[in-house]
Amino acid sequence: MYKIASTETMKKVMGDYFKSLGSGDNKVAWCTSVGPAELLRSFGFEVYFPENHGALLGATRSAMDYIPEAVKCGYSGHVCSYTTADIGSYLKGETPLSKHYGMAGAPKPDLIAYNTNQCREVQDWFGFFAKEFGCPIVGIQPPRHVDQTSQEEVDLVVAQFKRMIPACENASGSKFDIDRFREVVRLSKEATLLWQKVLKTSTAPIAPISFFDGTIHMGPIVVLRGTQVAKDYYANLLEELEQNLAQGKGFLPKAKTRIFWEGMPIWGKLRMLSDLFADNAAAVVASTYCSSWVFDQFDERDPFESTARAYTDIFINRSEKAKMDMLANWFVEYGIDGIVYHDSKTCFNNSNAKFGMPQRLRDRTGVPALVIEGDLCDLRFFSEGQSTTKIETFLEQLEDQKSAVI
Ligand code: SF4
After folding, report:
1. Which of 22, 47, 106, 272 makes the best surface tag, with the fewest CB within 10 Å?
2. Is 122's C-beta closer than 6 angstroms to any atom of ligand 1?
3. pTM of this prediction?
């Protein structure tokens, strides 16, 4: 059975990260997952990511115990289930962090920072905690759904980054140091380029890392980017995957079809979906989700402009045209036979199947598409039976089409 040995190292890396957050030794900043982590880290903050906690609540299937708590205090059950599960978990005073890492709860923030490049929901979510903890909050609001980001737009975001500095100085007790910022951006860039290479190993015919593996191994690039630890982790993971490639080892050596996953993971059903695709000889080799932490524009020589540009240019913040161009390129690069869109009930922002894009992209590329309904955390919106039937039928059709062409 194919296993990625680095998984054990990854568990230790993530365990050490959570224990350092819980130690209380350093100031803590909360940050959105594609927020200004490098700037925060340059002030010496430990950086905590509530979305990572949301994913943990989804993966442990405890989210459904907590969402009703948030609903009781006025949040709709139809808004971002990371938000409602995380707020509900706080209100109930329970978290899987206790069982897994011995933490009493999320670390108390000294500063909260968000970037609405992904969605405006994070502003409401983080605003709730800023009030609860009586903590300063700073936000970046870049232009949304950009086609090509203009210099004027980048300048606007740079100014917003710079406006964060006094709040960071006050909360951290440290003066801004441009050289430290450059160093963090350099480390972040090196880790993100390694992560990109990790993902691209699966352009090979026998792919060594699946989308489902990727959702696990992306932990350090989300929570530890800008550190040597993350860089070392991805250097080792890449070395292992390249060795596997050289030996012809992969997660599904006899795959009949190659699939692209679009949209959020369904955290509580990763194993079920991974087995379902594997049982149908379909290798899910790439995704927009895992690729969202590739910031190849980072440049320590121009840390403000390059981070502002990279965080504004992320997939979720692009126009339909830009998204279709990116997807069409990935289809070619990864040799994709079909794309599965996860239309997530509570994440409107990261669901691209609501306004006809699957049809338009299929017409343009010829790559067949399937839309399944579900949710990132709230499994009441996911029907395992219906989705299994839809996926199996889709995969059969793909195989038939491929054999007809051959
Ligand atoms: S992008 Fe979606 S899942 Fe992520 S915080 Fe925003 S609404 Fe929630």
Report:
1. 272
2. yes
3. 0.97
